[in-house]
Amino acid sequence: MIMAPTRELAQQIEKECQALAVHLGYKTVSVVGGQSIEDQGFILRKGVEVLIGTPGRMKDAIESRYLVLNQCNYVILDEADRMVDMGFENELNFVLDSMAGLLKSEAEDEAYKQEEASKRGEALFRVTAMFSATMPPAVEKLAKAFLRHPAIVSIGDRSKATKNLRIDQSVDMVNEAAKPMRLVDACRPGPDDKIIVFVNEKKRCDMVSRAIEKAGVRTAILHGGKSQDQREESLQNFRDGHFQVLVATDVAGRGLDIPDVSMVINYDMPAKLEAYCHRIGRTGRAGKSGRAVTFLTEADSEVYYDLKNYLEACDVSIPHNLARHPAAAAAPGTLTEGGRSATSRKDTVIFS
Predict the structure, then answer these.
(1) Is CATH 3.10.180.10 the right assignment for the domain spanning 158-328?
(2) Which backbone phi and psi does 10 adopt, to 5 degrees?
(3) In this structure, which topology does domain 2-146 adopt according to CATH?
């Protein structure tokens, strides 16, 4: 069983699994929202070897008796921290508690004895794997809850894992009212370019899309408010090059492998630096270079400090207005010498 935070990522995983499973005679199925749970239950009733899905729909399928996991003891959690951020922690626990296989003992000696018993076929213990590009506290918490004596595998230099050194990053300090004009100037794709524009709220997607299309560039839209068919169609049309610009929320921010994305534009700066790292990671993939442009406003001051430090670590030029802003001098909540918060709106810098 493989769990992922979004429908698009689950379906991408299913596609890759099918390419491998066809040689083994394994059947795979994805269980995600937006599609008929009855149709999914009909496929599940026939039996499958590989199950991929989102936590919410898996929980629904178990409660509806379409899905039974008493023979499943292998589980993979992809982007587990994102599932927690999206509020799926209860669903995760529910699905994992429905699985076969026991968690091994936290005592090392007892765990080794249990492993030997498992090899002799005398017991069944759960095998869990977790994958993530970052290791924030949410991932460590999940690891402690569901993993016993795990082997940790790091690919590449962990100190540089989130620095995106192949991406040319730039930050544009603007007023909110100036963002549409700056976006039109930045969003001019060449013949082979693909550009993803990220916004924080789905209700802003249509507004941003209209601003780009007025400049003569056709766009696709991807967010959680669209039907599943619309989401799949938008993503496929963007992958196929029918649209050169995709306007999306963080639904497209993690895990999705869209070939040849040349540029990412953060129309809205996310509230957490981790989301920023994942967003710009949609470009500069598979050894290629990419470009990321971020619009930063006074309303984003809570993330100034983390963003400035991140840009410094990536050897990126920091805008003067960001470098000298009081909120970039100390972490949020830190008090200045005058006793005020370092992110106080009283220390206002006027942006161009």
Answers:
(1) no
(2) -60, -40
(3) Rossmann fold (3.40.50)
